[in-house]
Amino acid sequence: MLRLVMxxxxxxxxxxxxxxxxxxxxxxCRFCNARWGLPGPNHRVSRVLLSGEIDxxxxxxxxxxxxxxxxxxxxxxxxxxxxxxxxxxxxxxxFMAAYDVFLRSxxxxxxxxxxxxxxxxxxxxxxxxxxxxxxVLKAGRFALTIFPEGN
Length: 151
Hints:
This protein is 41% helix and 10% strand. The protein has helices at residues 23-37, 54-62, 78-89, 99-102, 106-114, 127-139; strands spanning 68-69, 93-98, 117-120, 143-145.
């Protein structure tokens, strides 16, 4: 049986959740994503193969330059796929994510923040989220992933 996980949008007032990246939690979640998340029943992805300018991206990261990933977001598997791509590249990234995801549970919010996600209000001009994105890029410790056509 195919089980689809859809985002349930809520009517709760917007609350900003900053990124609080933990390299330990990021590593553990990336491993779990590759081992069980992607191949599991929600995504059914057996493997992710990279091609193209892989070494160029790694070199940019090695030099400490800023990396901004701006993928399309056409399916609910896209964040997990980008996490795997970034794991294979060796480039840790923070993510801008819809605030609804943080409201699912306290544990979910804690994990999301520790893997480097921060919230954005997609319905308005979110200055805190934009400031957080700039902070991530300026610091240069992590790449930044933004899905401009969020699903």
